[in-house]
Amino acid sequence: MRYLVLFPVLAALVGCGTPQERCIAGATRDMRIVDRLIAETQGNLDRGYALEEVERTGVRWETCRRGPPQKDGKPSRPDLCLQEYTFTVTKPRAINLADARQTLAELQKKRAAQARVAAPLVASCKATHPE
């Protein structure tokens, strides 16, 4: 039984990564964010439009119980109730393609500058935490 308690703790520790991986991840965090923005902007240019997630609300019938329990201790009988729920819809959104190209070029410049700054930090991480 004791081992079952330790298993989630060990699983969480394994997911943390080695000290070298954590150091490199910290040094390249901004680069990963810019990489994600570059991929999103490139996808928008390839499609010719952006995708936007919009939250909507709706109602649906769900089973619910109303009222106090019955006299013999049994739960009240199920009933149908209207319940609100939220869902996400992906919608196309028009973009200015010229602005998107300019943004992509700026992001690529920023990525190159970040790579130059991160290279010595990554080398330092590898020297400090050899695997």
Structural notes for this entry:
By secondary structure, the chain is α+β, with helices and mostly antiparallel strands. It has helices spanning about 1-15, 20-25, 30-45, 95-130; strands spanning about 50-65, 80-95. It has a two-stranded antiparallel ribbon with strand order 1-2. The chain is flat and about 75 Å long.
Shape call: flat
* Annotation, overall tally of beta strands: 2
Order of strands in the sheet with the most strands? Answer: 1-2
Report, as a whole number of angstroms, the end-to-end distance.
34 Å
Low-confidence segments, ≥5 residues, pLDDT <50? none
Content of β-strand? 15-25%
Question: What number is the mean pLDDT?
Answer: 86
- Give helix % range: 55-70%
Set down the secondary structure blueprint.
Layout: H1 2-14, H2 19-27, H3 29-47, E1 50-65, E2 78-93, H4 97-128
Antiparallel strand pairs: 1-2
Helix pairs in contact: 2-4, 3-4
Feature tags:
single chain; about 130 residues; alpha+beta; 2 domains; 4 helices; flat
Compact summary:
The chain is of the alpha+beta class and 131 residues long. Helices cover 56% and strands 24% of the residues. It starts with a helix and ends with a helix.
